[in-house]
Amino acid sequence: MKQNPITIVGAGLVGALLATLLTQRGFSVTVYERRHDPRVAGYAGGRSINLALAERGLHGLRLAGMTDTVMSLAVMMRGRMVHHRDGHTELLRYGRDDSEVIWSVSRGRLNTALIDAAEMAGARFVFDRRLAGANFGDEVTLRFENESGEPHEQRVPFAIGADGAGSALRAAMNATQPLGERIEPLGHGYKELEIPALPDFPAATIPPAAAAALARGERFAIEPNALHIWPRGNYMCIALPNAEGSFTVTLFLPNAGNPSFETVDSPAAARALFERDFADALPLIPELEKDFAANPVGVLATLYLDRWHLDRRALLIGDAAHAIVPFHGQGMNCGFEDAVELAQLFAATPDDTAAVFAEFERRRRPNAEAIAAMALENYVEMRDSVADPAFLLRRELARSLAERHPDRFVPRDSMVTFTRMPYAEAFARGVAQERLLRELTAGHERIGDIDLAAADAKVREQLEPLS
């Protein structure tokens, strides 16, 4: 018998996974979504930067019984393939070997798979219901409108907002009781472009290396098992593989300055930028001008809230509570952790919603703030540091120390990507390790110049064993 009806606003990634996890635990779940059903109308939601699926997200999908389905949509990425200005490339691995990788997956395909799984588990979805407002009395009244503007009201015990960075439920909650909302723009934006799969590549423009791959029967124009980065200091371009052979390409530029989206404001200006700064990528993007003209400039910002819930009446999770910039590939993974944590708390205390909401925020907010900070730091690393010899030396030393002291030294990226260590703990430990790496590499250019015996002693002195 179903118990405790739960209402979720938003059928995106986090809302759909949460619906599955709660339904599996015996709750009656209804999900309201402003879009039409993407399985019928096609996916047209939000940012389309490919998702980087890592251990935290995989854990939630395992609990939902979705591992096989999702992995069939994913492409393994071993590391960052750095494309330097002089044309040479190098692979910077994420982990030790192929047991430590991340996975590129299409947002739209994953979202539709999650909705399917939630419906199969017993969740109910109501599409074409835009949240127009809410009244937070003893009962919560949600006011919806469909595409034609026709109103619909629903009274519920409480509501969970999983409706993304522009959350309508958050706006309604904030109007009732201020949440301390702060939105900090990054000052940079993005444009999405595409490297097509080889079978779809215009024959007249296919580059020689890609032509050779096509002759071998391959689908990918460049190395498929990597996240490609063209770092150029204050800006960059990245490309993530899709299962059918294409790559989703994202150009990141400042909003102002030179170059920026102020100066690169036309398809012709985009081509000139690529000819100058991304020459090896240009032949791979045959529809550059068309894509640049058609796709809007995406906004990048970090959302901070002082409060995520209104007592027992409403709670925010995922991007609705803590939207971050995408440069650590952890936004979805963090949101899936939210869903797992919340489902477990509801299962443990199904009759005390206020306690569940308060405990959820207590546990998750410090971790959300930590990954927000790390994501901002990672933008600088991706667009600049991966081409900096001092950074590369620290990275090489970090790998050496991790091999020599696996009980004390784990690179921060590995803690974030390949473990479920709380983000806040990984952040704090990463600060201590970075301080040590800078101390040990000061004045050196090669790892062979570093006294590893002395480094061993400092690791044992400064870093506590991992619990």
Protein architecture, described:
- By secondary structure, the chain is of the alpha/beta class.
- 40% of the residues lie in helices and 22% in strands.
- The strands form 4 sheets. The protein has a 7-stranded mixed sheet with strand order 6-5-14-15-16-13-17, with helices on both faces. It has a 6-stranded mixed sheet with strand order 8-2-1-12-19-18. Strands 3-7-4 form a 3-stranded antiparallel sheet.
- The longest helix is centred in the last third of the chain and has 31 residues, at 353-383.
- The protein starts with a strand and ends in a 5-residue tail after the last helix.
In short:
Helices cover 40% and strands 22% of the residues. It is of the alpha/beta class.
Radius of gyration: 23 Å
- Gap from first CA to last CA: 41 Å
Helical stretch count?
16
Largest sheet: 7 strands, mixed
User: Structural class per helix/strand content?
Assistant: alpha/beta
Mean pLDDT: 94
Portion in beta strands: 15-25%
Low-confidence sequence ranges: none
Order of strands, widest sheet: 6-5-14-15-16-13-17
Overall strand count:
19
Helix percentage range: 25-40%
Shape: globular
